[in-house]
Design brief:
Elements: H1 4-8, H2 13-22, E1 40-45, E2 59-64, H3 70-78, E3 96-101, E4 108-112, H4 122-134, E5 138-146, H5 153-168, E6 175-181, H6 188-205, E7 210-214, H7 225-235, H8 239-248
Parallel strand pairs: 2-4, 2-5, 5-6, 6-7
Antiparallel strand pairs: 1-3, 3-4
Length: 249
């Protein structure tokens, strides 16, 4: 399969610009993610009553259809190979899993949600909904889409629901952003059309959704992972502080 950079050389200048923007240099990666060994699993919640209290650290939650590459992407974001279990069998994640980023007490918490759709279970959806509606620490919901498969009706319903909640609070409670995964699975002739189609479908379903980040995280070099990190920092209110740190060096 042709690499992402090789593929983007054969598509439109506009998409090449997007590719450069999202396939960011590791030199700009925030210090919040600089020590992968400090990332730590904190807790798993199978019910609303078991959702942990974590000292008020800002949180982001990541969801998507089963087998969209969620665990692979999050391992790449955290700089670990197997902190999150990966599996070809859909439905491996069955609880809300909480991970601290940074050494104690931590900078933020990343929450891995069970996959939804035909492979999901009703109780997983209820748990996710409860968390999103009630978690004061939540700053952003990331929803993942497989580059080759695009959106289906369940994806649109999920986006629409999150969009309604975001609009109801004028974006003050949390924001929503899409992440397009496994872009390396597309052939060069498919890339431009597929990405544009996914972008359109996202914004049609959720006008308040932030522009999607394009990623590939299965093999090195990763693409878009640094952009995901910066997005998380911005969502958690850590971006400006980090810029000050870099300017002072």
């Amino acid at each position: 399969m042709m690499s992402f950079y090789a593929a983007t050389r054969r598509v439109s200048p506009g998409l090449r610009h997007s590719a450069r923007r999202y396939a960011s240099s590791s030199a700009a990666t925030s210090k919040v993610f600089a020590d992968p060994k400090s990332a730590e699993f904190l807790a798993a919640a199978a019910t609303a009553s078991s959702i942990p209290r974590l000292h008020g650290l800002p949180e982001v939650i990541v969801t998507g259809r089963a087998n969209v590459g969620k665990s692979t992407l999050l391992n790449a974001v955290l700089g670990r190979r197997n902190l999150l279990n990966t599996s070809k069998k859909p439905g491996r994640t069955q609880t809300l899993n909480f991970y601290r980023v940074g050494p104690p007490p931590g900078h933020l918490v990343l929450v891995d949600a069970p996959g939804y759709g035909s492979r999901g279970r009703p109780e997983w959806g209820e748990l996710f909904d409860y968390y999103v509606q009630n978690r004061a620490e939540l700053r952003r919901v990331y929803i993942l889409f497989h580059a080759k498969h695009g959106l289906n009706e369940v994806d649109r319903m999920m986006l629409s629901s999150l969009d309604e909640q975001c609009q109801a609070s004028a974006g003050l409670k949390f924001t929503v952003q899409g992440i397009i995964t496994k872009v390396d699975t597309l052939r060069d002739s498919e890339l431009s059309k597929a990405i544009k189609s996914i972008q359109k479908d996202i914004f049609d379903a959720a006008p308040t959704c932030l522009p999607p980040i394009i990623t590939s995280a299965l093999e090195q070099p990763h693409y878009g992972v640094d952009e995901v990190k910066r997005s998380i920092l911005e969502a958690c209110g850590l971006g400006k502080a980090e810029m000050k740190v870099y300017r002072s060096l």
